[in-house]
Amino acid sequence: MFKIQYYDLPSGKEPARAFLGKLPKDERWAAFAHIKLLEEYGNQIGMPESRAMGNGLFELRVKLDNGQIRLFYFFVAGRICVITNGFKKKSKKTPSRYLYMARKYKKEYESRNIQ
């Protein structure tokens, strides 16, 4: 089992939780089902549920009847998975602003949690 954490900004806000909270109920349930898979299988999940995005960042891929949801995450020591942010995918290509934010959040998390 992996422990799921949500990245929190210095203000205490959690971008991934905020995104999930705004989804319609059925889409939120689908996203949480995939998060549960991540909790159970962690780094053993591969395509089509998860894809590496480089530099230790991954995307959890949730396919819906009317589109797709993406949640970015990374792993830290001790079997912990940190979910940074998410978006509803409307085009073939991942919008660069979401990937940029995920990379920024990962870097900030690592700088705050150097042991």
Structure description:
It is a single chain. By secondary structure, this protein is of the alpha+beta class. It has a single domain, classed as 2-Layer Sandwich (YaeB-like fold). 37% of the residues lie in helices and 32% in strands. The protein has 3 helices and 5 strands. A 5-stranded mixed β-sheet has the order 1-5-4-3-2. The chain is globular and about 40 Å long. The two termini are 23 Å apart.
Key phrases:
five-stranded mixed β-sheet, 3 helices, alpha+beta, 115 residues, YaeB-like fold
Protein topology:
Blueprint: E1 3-6, H1 15-22, H2 25-41, E2 50-54, E3 57-64, E4 67-76, E5 80-89, H3 96-112
Parallel strand pairs: 1-5
Antiparallel strand pairs: 2-3, 3-4, 4-5
**How big is the Rg?**
13 Å
The number of strands is 5
Per CATH, the class reads: Alpha Beta
Q: Find the structural class using helix and strand composition.
A: alpha+beta
Low-confidence stretches: none
Short description:
This protein has 115 residues and is an alpha+beta fold.
